[in-house]
Amino acid sequence: MAELSERAQLILSLVIKEYIARARPVGSATLVKKYNLNVSPATVRNEMAALEAQGYLTHPHTSAGRVPTEKGYRYFVQRLLETIPLSPEEGFTIRHQFHQLQLDIEQWMKLAASVLSRVTNYASLVTAPSSPRYRLKHIDLVPLREGVALLVLVLSGGVVRQAGISVPPYIGEPELMQIAEELDEFLYGLSGAEIEALASRLDPFASRVVLMAAEIMNALDQRISEPIYKDGLHNVAKEPEFSVANRLRRIIKVLDDETFLRSLLEETRLTNGVQVIIGGEGRWDELRDCSLVLARYGHREKACGVLGVLGPMRMAYGRAISAVRYVAGLMSDMVNRLYD
User: Fold this and answer.
1) What is the DSSP string of 188-232?
2) Cα–Cα distance, 12 to 121 (Å, whole number)
């Protein structure tokens, strides 16, 4: 993007701020009067005309005022935006809500979606943290009855799986406990594929235990993706941009299409910091009426997820970015507690 003059940057910034606040085209006289600009309305009109010629502003045919374009919003977010952190009171309230929960992933996902929707007044999206591969944290063999034991696996992220396994008659309870202890030490921190590769090095019963553990873990690694937690569609529906039925239907379709959302969110999983997608960026036609503010949370080598908000292009970007960044930090703390 070409650099704009200091005055052009100021005019563009004020037009966007006014349009975000009022959802009505912005005129030069409004800017001069409201912001006590030390120039005439004619000078501001000339700057606005120049910004329109460069593609940063446009104007509806029925109004002399201007509104921002995708390019204008993008310049504003990249060059002019000043994000203001959430107030200490808001931060305390949000932290308190999360700290009241046990380390229950589903409850944290639901709360994150609810908090983001409430704080920003947009729709929210949150995916559960997932590991590249599950790792074994603990293995146990619990005698149930003669000839049968319960295989217990504790995996990364606090995931627990159990399965029954037949036990040869020559293996009693003491031997069963010893096998479990040896396997627990031998297999700690390994993935399902790594565990499976070691089976041939063990005696027949231990090998059977290891292969069953590997099968369970490999199935989890290939599991159907967790749901995307959402909240706040009613917030988006209230925005004037979506009072036109076909635009609202398009947004509802986007939020219902989890295949599309997953492919979009997966890209954010690979990036650092907060990502802002404005009007689809020329790549996603489904998003041409809206903007997304997204962030990865967690730890890439342990487990990570994505959260963010969806709203109109006329989005309060500073507020949205601050909220997304703050909640992502809390969710990262949760992941670190779960996976350490």
Assistant:
1) TT--HHHHHHTGGGS-HHHHHHHHHHHHHHHHHHTPPPPPEEEE-
2) 24
| 8 Å CB contact between 241 and 247 | yes
Going along the chain from its start, the domains and CATH numbers come out as: 6-80 (1.10.10.10), 88-130+226-339 (3.30.450.40), 136-221 (3.30.390.60)
Q: pLDDT per residue over 180-216, tens digit each?
A: 999 999 999 998 989 999 998 899 999 999 999 999 9
Q: Cβ(327)–Cβ(307) under 8 Å?
A: yes
Residues 231-251 pLDDT 10s = 999 999 999 989 888 888 989
Report residue 122: phi and psi, to 5°: -125, 180
DSSP H/E element including 322: helix 317-339
Running DSSP on this structure, what letter comes out for residue 57?
E
DSSP state of 309: E
d(CA 305, CA 290): 22
- 252-303 pLDDT tens trace: 999 999 888 988 887 787 678 899 999 988 889 889 989 999 999 998 767 8
Give the 3-state DSSP-derived string for 126-179, with helices as H, strands as E and coil as C. Answer: EECCECCCCCEEEEEEEEEECCEEEEEEEEHHHCEEEEEEECCCCCCHHHHHHH
Please provide residue 145's backbone torsions phi and psi, each rounded to the nearest 5 degrees: -155, 180
Residues 6+ apart with CB under 8 A from 188: 136, 137, 138
Residues 6 or more apart whose CB falls under 8 angstroms from that of 254 comprise 260, 261, 286, 287, 290, 310
CB count within 10 Å of CB 67 equals 21
Structure tokens at 175: 């031997």
Whole-angstrom distance, CA of residue 46 vs CA of residue 73: 20
Model pTM?
A: 0.75
